[in-house]
Amino acid sequence: MPAPAPIRISKSKFVAGIQCLRRLYFQVHQPELAQEAEDEQEARLEQGQEVGILAQGRFPGGVLVGFETRIDEALANTASLMADSSVPAIFEAAFQYSNVLVRVDILQRRPGNRWRLIEVKSSVDVKPYHLFDLAIQHYVLSACGVDVSSACLMHLNRDYRYDGKQHALAALFTIRNQTGQVKKIGADVPRLLKAQRKVLAQSAAPDIRPGPQCTDPYPCEFFGHCNPEPPEHHISFLPRLSSKKHQALIDLGVTIINKIPEDFPLTEHQARMRAVVTTGQTWISDALREELSELKYPLFFMDFESIYPAIPRFAGMWPYSQIPFQWSVHRQSTNSSDLEHFEFLAGDELDPRPKFIESLCAVLGKRGQIVVYNGSFESQRLSELADRSPEYGERIKGIRGRLWDLLPFIRRNVYHPEFRGSFSIKTVLPALVPNMTYEGMDVADGNEAGLTWEQITRGKLEPAERQRLKAGLLAYCRQDTLAMVKILERLRDSRMKRGHG
Q1: Which of 61, 74, 392, 459 has the most CB atoms around its CB within 10 Å?
Q2: Is the separation of the CB atoms in 152 and 178 below 8 Å?
Q3: Same domain, 50 and 140
Q4: Strands 148-156 and 369-372, how do they pair?
Q5: 267 and 342 share one domain
């Protein structure tokens, strides 16, 4: 019986193995265990591809080695292009050594038949884990006889400002020489590859306990397999529980919050959570009523939605700067159910910021507190809008001064058994207002809202689908502001007393 063909290790699999050998094993032998990629993950991949294509524009005359060809053809095409001195750069050049395959983002020809190896990243700086990408490429190219003059990372420049006309690629991207560090890591590459091959030759996945590597530096696609949903009130729900204390509880045989011994050291918030889980009663602080009395009508309940594209889209933007495209406001004149609702949603590819702030200022007026949830987000967006539209500077300053943040108020004054360690409005709302939930909505979170808006403004949609997505977006943002109204109504309820829910 012939021996099985040796397993080929690609650049991406090598990097996966650096993060976790168990992840590498599953990628090769049990890929069916992976969670289905979410829309957000796919969007990040598409964004990375968009950045990569734009980066190629920095090297006019460069030639692409297509991914649609077979590996042997890609290797042959790469060799042919390298032999052609008229080709200044090669994109996605293919190299293989000892069953390790790499594709190089950009291979730039240098004098004396030398080559500059460039790895493109959509980040705005160099991350330590990026160097392993470069190191495996440098290792393979050097073994193949390629004279690598330097190994560089090319990433987006956080100081770049788009003029709104045409991207200046030399300014948009920064190229940083990492040769010294890459060579240091490179000395360890043979050992790392040997360890990876040893794991891949096993009949079962290595026994590696879940830990930080499950999400750092990338969320693992096998997270759900290695981290099954914990039972209700598991100790992992305790806020800011250190790994040392977590392990100490495990050593005591304690996995459920209400089983934690009274003498076990916990923070104030952790101890409060233990008490609530044990009694099943909502905790309400003595200060809640007094703090609520400080709110004066009229009240405006406000929420923004935004996206942050890697490549700046409008004048004055920088990589990953925010584009606010939607707002919702509920206005409450008195302590009653009488509400007015106002909303804005940009519907085309034009810069939404001018209409966004103009319409918002018209609705908010100049008096009345503005209730937000995690107000630093709205405050920062307003500050950026003031920089962009100085004619609204004073009005925006006044709006920022009127913000009242419901999130820290909840953290200080309320804890419900169903919070499960989270103060997200998606968790707080159904716990305090059981007849309201985000479940079943066409758009159910902020990331989904951004992706939906991208579809509306940049996708080729039939009118009916466009209207359906628009309705979903409006309903979601409206739900966010109505949720704050209902949460405050619940907290004002005379039945909401300390120690009861």
Answers
A1: 74
A2: yes
A3: yes
A4: unpaired
A5: no
